[in-house]
Amino acid sequence: MKHITSVDGSSWTDPDCPVARTLDIVGDRWSLLIVRDAMDGARSFTDFQHRTGVARNILTERLRRLVDRGILRREAAPSGRRQLYVLTDAGRDLFTVIVAMRQWGEGHAFADDETHSVLLDASGLPLARLQPTDSHGVAVDVDSTTVVRADRSDHATP
Amino acid sequence: MKHITSVDGSSWTDPDCPVARTLDIVGDRWSLLIVRDAMDGARSFTDFQHRTGVARNILTERLRRLVDRGILRREAAPSGRRQLYVLTDAGRDLFTVIVAMRQWGEGHAFADDETHSVLLDASGLPLARLQPTDSHGVAVDVDSTTVVRADRSDHATP
Hints:
The structure is a homodimer of 158-residue chains. Chain A is of the alpha+beta class and 158 residues long. Chain A is built from 6 helices and 4 strands, in the order ααααββααββ. A two-stranded antiparallel ribbon of chain A has the order 1-2. In chain A, α2 packs across α3. The two termini of chain A are 26 Å apart. At the A-B interface, α1, α2, α6, β3 and β4 of A face α1, α2, α6, β3 and β4 of B. β4 of chain A pairs antiparallel with β3 of chain B.
């Protein structure tokens, strides 16, 4: 697998932490909305612009960055005249992150009388709720888990 | 359940979309790193400052915002002299989002020879990989799911 091991030549906010690296790569509102729209079928600059409503200069910059970071790749449209932006495997793998955000938003960011978009499976039914579990399938939460820092003592680089 | 139905009096980027609302609420690198650290036991301003390394003025602003948005709440420390920041239920529910980001980062943002922190269950084992599934427990992905927009025609407000 190709790994993303640096961002724009600048250093990671917190090099040992996979959460922090993910945020360095896509932790920006527009970047994740672009990923959301790519998952929902947006391919061209115009698609992304219509769906996000973001300013063209910001969209241009974010698309370039997502390509540089290996989340999207450029493809020529069948007509050959336009460029399309397609999710890479790493980009497709953000599906779980987007689903987790969607489910949190459904639960916490809408009043009872507000409608929202829904993500449906092939039968037209909502997905099951994502639930972190241990390796035996038992539900875990903040209280039953612990972060263990990386041991960097064997690293020559500072 | 108490819902977060507006952000700082400004309008939502994309009012119908739970992903977009979640990003409006916590879609910022520092906010999500603060949530990560709160899940890992950070409680005081100093804890958050040491762990994130963020500038004090930015940290002050982000903590205030996370309190306003119902992700953290302020509590007096037992000594009564310091203020602590504790995750609300909505904040604790972001655990799934953080785990999804962590697992993506583990898979895509580290080279094979790089070490990273790990999230372990009570037995010291890594969590199972989060996998979006349909209501029968069958794995789903980008290709087998569809976003259906909210029907806002029954809404009186524009």
